[in-house]
Every structure is written in structure tokens, then in C-alpha cells.
Amino acid sequence: MSLPRTWRPLGVRLAVLFFGGMLLVICTFAWFGFDPSVRARFTFFQRSTLLALGLLYAAVGYALARSRVVAEETGLTVVNGYKRHVYDWAQVVAVRLPQGAPWATLDLADGTTVSVLAIQGSDGDRARAAVRGLRSLIDR
Fold first, then answer.
1. Residue 94: what pLDDT?
2. pTM of structure
3. 81 and 41 in one domain?
4. Is pLDDT at 13 greater than 80 in this prediction?
5. Run of H or E including 115
6. Which domain holds residue 100?
């Protein structure tokens, strides 16, 4: 397998785009479906609360969608949401994706584990192929 190699979640990114888009369309149609008198009764606080919830959804969706694992000659970079972890190959012992697990985990040499949100169990064969590819790199 040639390096660098990047793995990203597919299902999560599609769900964020689809449901985020649908939420935006529904809210827009609902807002403009109200009579002007009903829209005028919304207070600044109510409008800003709706905007804050939309921004929160966007921030969480962006964090999930940006998750990735990058394998390079020097090691492995794991991005989970807004956190970034860099590991040398010697630090990574194994990668696991048990049946029914939501995402893969890395076993590290110090005895700890790290979740890998980029490899989602819900991606099925794509996730299993990613784990096999990552295992082959770890075993090198």
C-alpha cells in the first residue's frame, strides 16, 4: 500500500450533509410559511436561540465529518472531531473493529486505546477494508 493514505468516514459525512440540508430546507420553508404577523412575534432571544442551535449542529457535524486517519512513513495521524493525535508506528500495536462496535480503536504500546472515528462500523465492508489496510501497515 502506498503512503500517504487517508481514511475518512462515508456514512457520517453523508448523513451530516443530508440531514443538515433537510433541516435547513424545512426551517426555511416553515419560516417563510408563517404570516408576517407570526414572524414579527418572534423575539430576538428566540431567533438567536434557533440560530445558536443551528450553529451547534453545524459545529458537531463538521467535527464528525472532518474525522480522519492519515498513514505516513513516519507514523499515524488520528483526527477525532477537533482533536488531533500523532503517533509513531512503534507506538501503535493493533487496530480493532469488533462486530457491532461503532468505530475502530487503536491499541497503543503504553496500554491505552484511542478511538478512531474515521473508521465507522456502520460503513460495513468499507470499514473492514480500512482496518485490514491499517493492520497491514502496522505489521510492516
1. 95
2. 0.81
3. no
4. yes
5. strand 113-120
6. 66-139
